[in-house]
Amino acid sequence: MTQEFWDRKHETLPLRDLQDLQLKRLKTLVSYVSKSNQLYRKKLTEAQVTHASIKTLQDIETIPFLTKQDLRAYYPFGLVCTPLDDIVEVHASSGTTGKPVVGPYTAHDVDLWGEVMARSLFANGLRKTDIVQNAYGYGLFTGAHGFEKGAQKIGAMVITISSGNTERQIDIMKDFGSTALACTPSYSLHIAEVAEEKGLRPAEDFQLRLGAFGAEAWSEEMRSSIEKRWGITAHEHYGLTELIGPGVVSECEYKKLHINADHFYPEIIDPKTGETLEPGNEGELVYTTLTKEAFPALRFRTKDLASISEETCECGRTLPIQSRIKGRSDDMMKIKGVIVFPSQIEAALMQVSGMSDNYQIVKTKQGDVYSLSVEAEPVEDRFRQGHLDDFEQKAEKEIFRVLNLRVPVHAVQPKTLPRSTGKAKRVVER
Ligand SMILES: [Zn+2]
Questions:
Q1: Is residue 425 part of a domain?
Q2: For the chain, what is the domain count?
Q3: What residues contact 8, with CB distance under 8 A and at least 6 apart?
Q4: What is the CA(4)–ligand 1 centre distance, in A?
């Protein structure tokens, strides 16, 4: 145990003290938003929630949820709680389905973001001596900016290369001696693939030792594959534009996902009834930002499925632990009565020998019924060996083992499925 912390005081608070702090901050938050935003004021007044009515943390359940629809309805600045003059930075989600979600920050919020990101990256093992290749896309998206702020706060060198131009990524990675890579997990695999095409060995010919990955739901099997391929330790980051961006949850050296719960209060609810579930149960994650100024989110429904536990961790942190994201409830597919998440199919495919990291799930609608098939790329060697029906059958068997559902698998020629420099599109509808 290294016993190193970025912010020892807040990362090792006894549970009771953490809860006291959360309650104090929640009460302040309720008064703050009621005073400073008319939409929040209306919502809380209708629900009869006041500073005084919040007596315990459980009373948070009296606060109405905030949903994506609310954010769209109040786009872009309807939920801002400060004068617009105080906003110094704005980000937004990609907005692939409708209006983008806007994340405005005051100077205080920018500082908070840097702090929680520094805490997260430090827990991953990032230090002042590291050289961070920041291959998240720079732009309105929060990713690149969050990682930059945190790494700089630690004092590491940040290469602000952004995503794309993969050949150049590889040259820079080699020439500058990058020791950490920040990007989506799928993009890290694409970089490795292009490096191999150039005759390089990713695990040996670079200085990389650490990966800080996020913005995608990826399986534990995919993590192992990335770690092996690059010869690194790969860590998961979780966050949302609605909350602050990355910096909400990240992993310690034991790969436990600690929630920065002194700033982001987590709940798990039943996605159907909205009822709060006890620790340990799987459900939809709901987050309240306890300390943000410009745009505080009260009980935001993330649509991400996970569980939370208060188990102690060997690293010494007392911050609660979130499970890895099983999938967004939006990504959930119901096929012949079976609930299917893309990450489950990914995990099954990774068990098949000769399988690469590239696959695509094809969803086909016939009438009102959906069916699934999978296109999977074997590695080059396996493809050349032929007898691909054997490969396909093994893949189908693994998927059946996990889902109890027959999903046809088609082996496709290596390097034919689309590659992504950002979030990979694993499910296509035809
Ligand atoms: Zn830990």
A1: yes
A2: 1
A3: none
A4: 11
Kindly state the helix (H) or strand (E) to which residue 131 belongs, with its residue range: strand 131-134
Ranking 67-71, 113-117, 205-209, 407-411 by mean pLDDT, the lowest is 67-71
Distance between CA atoms of residues 336 and 290, nearest Å: 42
The DSSP element (H or E) to which 174 belongs, if any, is: helix 166-176
Q: What is the pLDDT of residue 53?
A: 98
Residue type, 295: F
Q: What are phi and psi of 331, to 5 degrees?
A: -80, -10
Q: Alpha-carbon distance 392 to 221, whole Å?
A: 19
**pTM for the complete prediction?**
0.93
Label residue 215 by pLDDT band (50, 70, 90).
confident
SS3 424: coil
What confidence score (pLDDT) does residue 96 get? 64
Tokens of 185: 């997990």
Q: Please determine, for residue 150, whether its predicted confidence score (pLDDT) is greater than 50.
A: yes
Q: How far is the CA of 46 from the centre of ligand 1 (A)?
A: 40
Indicate the length of the chain as a whole number: 430
Q: What's the gap in Å between 250 CA and the centre of ligand 1?
A: 9
In a domain, 297, yes or no: no
CB 235 within 8 A of CB 213: yes
- Compute the distance from residue 255 Cα to the ligand 1 centre, in Å: 7
Which of 216, 246, 224 is closest to 151 using CA atoms?
246
Domain limits for position 340: 333-429
Q: How far is the CA of 209 from the centre of ligand 1 (A)?
A: 19
CATH code of the domain in which 385 resides: 3.30.300.30
Specify the pLDDT at position 3: 58
Strands (E) in 139-269, as ranges, are 157-159, 180-183, 210-214, 233-240, 245-251, 257-259, 264-269
Burial 213-244 (b: 16+ CB within 10 A, else e): bbbbbbbebbbebbeebbebbbbbbbbbbbbb
Do the domain assignments include residue 346?
yes
Classify residue 378: in a domain, yes or no: yes
List the alpha helices (DSSP H) in 350-387: 380-385
How far does the centroid of ligand 1 lie from the alpha carbon of residue 172, in Å?
Answer: 33
